[in-house]
Amino acid sequence: MHGLYTKVWKREHLAEVPEYVPEAVKAEILDVMKTLNQYYGEDRDVDGDLGGYLAVFPEPYQKADYEALLDRYHLSRQEPEYAEFLCKKGRVLWIEELFLCGSDYHLIVIRPAVLETEIKNNNTTGGSNDV
To answer: What percent of the chain has pLDDT over 70?
Structure first.
């Protein structure tokens, strides 16, 4: 756990993702992690080299913590390259957002949302049914 979210870029970091995170979300985390490592290397300095990482927020999380992470990279929550609905578990919707922090550095945020209106307001697409 990196502060208030789990920072993932290596296979061993998957063990730090909370158990309640749905398997569909964990599968997406693994897929994105493999892609980043294929192109940028698993042993990269994630804060100093190219590539980026995944930030997995817990359920629940503080909106201020999410915004602080985006502020660190001078990003706005209204400006993801894409946002995708991954799955729904009960009343919780899981969202993936890709932010480009530079020409070759990515911040991928995986986070839960309870209100379906948040999904509609962010123009997300895709996803699957309840898991």
So the answer is: 85
